[in-house]
Amino acid sequence: MSDPDRLADAEYETLRVDVGGEADRVATVAISRPDARNALNATVRSELMAAVPLAEADDAVRVLVITGDDEGRAFVAGADITEFADRDGLEQRRISERPRIYETIADASIPVIARVNGHALGGGCELAQACDVRIAHERAKIGQPEINLGIMPGGGGTQRLPRLVGTGQAMKLALSGELIDATEAADIGLVEEVHGDGTFDERVYELAGTIAEKSPVALEFTKRAVQASARMPMDGGIDYEAELFTTLFDTEDKREGIAAFFEDREPEFEGR
Ligand code: COA
Q1: Phi/psi zone of residue 189: left (φ > 0), alpha (ψ -120 to 50 degrees), beta?
Q2: N or C: more exposed end of the chain, with fewer CB within 10 A?
């Protein structure tokens, strides 16, 4: 029987979901619009808004991988441009209001890895930026081409991109609309690693699986602390880190981690 609390049992029109098939406790949500290079339309956005919280709440999931379906031959080719044509400012204002998918991913309590399997453009680039780590296929092309349409990045790109790559590189990408290849994206810090066919999935799921073995509480606190570095002054950030660090000393997982170290065995973290 299907269980509404399990991501593995959820059915979507534009998402394909796998839980545990690639690595233990790792879920993959693949955006699947093969005829539109996996562009983000209203259905994809609302289904992602349902799938991400479901992944967070599901005990079987400790790391989420977000990707474009390989069949779509892209990660995500941006917002669906056909939806832009008749949209006025008022309607766009409603769509831009929170909660929206970029912040839902960034704020997720579990780590989210972007498997950048191809073009990550506009909203697709912003989706990748909202994830915690980005692993790109060498075929990926990445950029913020909104300026070519007479608009600008609106999914957090003017804020997250400079925090990842610095103001100058962000300006260059957003003002020119130029696309860069995966190697250049890695050089400027827009993706963390680049792999070819032979090692791409192996590495994505090796990394996801490695992270999924850790304490979920420690993972969440680490994510929160690192994210805080982008919005807090150094002093406040150091205090916040100390607060979270101290709290971990009361967890079962800390006891288990230390015990496993001395007993020379692998720890079994329960997230408590
Ligand atoms: N929104 C809606 N449809 C899109 C789309 C988008 N962002 N990106 C691609 N598509 C559609 C194309 O219109 C095309 O549809 P069709 O077969 O009905 O004509 C289909 O996906 C395949 O795209 P195509 O351009 O033929 O593929 P390609 O391999 O030659 O190029 C891209 C791929 C991603 C480089 C190209 O599609 C592109 O530049 N897309 C727009 C990117 C963009 O500007 N995004 C920012 C939006 S803010």
Answers
A1: left
A2: N
pLDDT tens for residues 72-95? 999 999 999 999 999 999 999 999
Task: Name the token pair of 11.
Answer: 């059915």
Is 126 known to be catalytic? yes
* Domain locations in the chain as residue ranges: 7-212, 216-262
Which CATH architecture does the domain made up of 7-212 adopt? Alpha-Beta Complex (3.90)
In this prediction the pTM is 0.97
For residue range 113-163, what is the model confidence (pLDDT) as tens digits?
Answer: 999 999 999 999 999 999 999 999 999 999 999 999 999 999 999 999 999
- 67 - beta bridge partners? 30, 115
What separation in Å is there between the alpha carbon of 233 and the centre of ligand 1?
41
Give CA–CA dist 269/249, Å, rounded: 14
Q: How far is the CA of 77 from the centre of ligand 1 (A)?
A: 6
Query: The domain at 216-262 falls in which architecture?
Result: Orthogonal Bundle (1.10)
Q: Tell me which of 22, 56, 146, 241 is the catalytic residue.
A: 146
In whole angstroms, what is the distance from residue 9 CA to residue 70 CA? 22
